[in-house]
Write a structure and sequence with these properties.
This protein has one domain (about 10-70). It has helices spanning about 10-15, 20-35, 35-45, 50-70. The chain contains four helices and no strands.
């Protein structure tokens, strides 16, 4: 029997990043929110960020994707 992993909306934004991109993004996000690394992963897994943290996550990851695209151009 195969285990099916269903990604939540936040994970779908985070998952496509490379390991280096995830590390860089995570560092910046944790600096902004002052979340611990453990809390970050709990919130990411359960999509349990507080509303302002969730809004910041989405804004930052969208901007992060744009800046990464521009640096590769």
């Amino acid at each position: 029997m195969q285990k099916v992993c269903v990604l939540n909306e936040i994970q779908k934004l985070y998952e496509p990043l490379s390991l280096k991109e995830k590390k860089d993004f995570r560092k910046k996000f944790l600096e902004e929110t002052e979340l611990s690394l453990a809390s970050f992963y709990v919130c990411l897994r359960g999509d349990t960020f507080r509303p302002l943290e969730r809004k910041l996550f989405i804004e930052m990851i969208q901007e992060y994707g744009k800046s990464e695209d521009n640096s590769n151009a």
